[in-house]
Amino acid sequence: MHLVKVNLFAALSGFILGWTIGNLFLGVAFAALLVLAVQIWHMFATRFVLNHLNAVSLTQASSCNPIHRMFLGDAYKLAEQANMGRTQFSIIETDLPLAFSLGSRQSGGRIVVTSGLFKTLTRLEIASVIAHELGHIRAGERAATGLLLSFSALLAKTGLFGWVHRANKGVSGLGNVLPFRRAGLTPECRADAFAAALCKNTGILASALKKLERGIRASHWDGLETLPALGRVAIVDPRHAYISSASPEISPMAHRVAELHRLQLAEAA
Hints:
The protein is built from 14 helices and four strands. It is α+β, with helices and mostly antiparallel strands. Strands 1-2-4-3 form a four-stranded mixed beta sheet. A hairpin with a 7-residue loop joins strand 3 and strand 4. The longest helix is centred in the N-terminal third of the chain and has 29 residues. The chain is globular, with a radius of gyration of 19 Å. The two termini are 35 Å apart.
């Protein structure tokens, strides 16, 4: 989700509302106020999301865990190779193996991983996941992620996202409710390609994606119950993991892995 699109939507919505209940001047005023509100919300959204998820910042100076220190060493090296040395990292304590990113390329962004990621993937596979998230930040696809997730958290408190709890127990016909659309996977495939190029290996990321899909299906969705939109920005959408299990013929993950294999064949040729 791009921040420009969010601002345009806010401005248009405010203008229409002001024009409807008043006149042109009121429409412009409402548009300006909504855009200002979005900017203020955007300033605090990332911190709100991290606090909501009890995410802990990871740095070489503060981390005593040798696994985390090794992870940071690999992550910083990849960030430098991608000319994104300002990227920061955080961790969430949950068995659900996920990774996602927030922020703009200008700020360096932040990559958030879960403790379950370290229990599911090898060191090289985790590095490929970090490279994937760096690809999203570099492409400018995570500038408004904080807004999306914070809004999701607020809506979850109203109970509007109760379907997440139902999905956790396995809803029959999930493949029909959440149809697979390849066009929606374009940013993911683009980030996959970036990660493969940065790590100089396509097979490692393909292996990581398969393991994450299996790990997600075997885990609880506790983190998503309070932040339903998290799945939309995670490297593996838990909804896709269930679709792949229920309807392998329309598996989004199979499409991504096939794209990676296609890249591998192209490089070999």
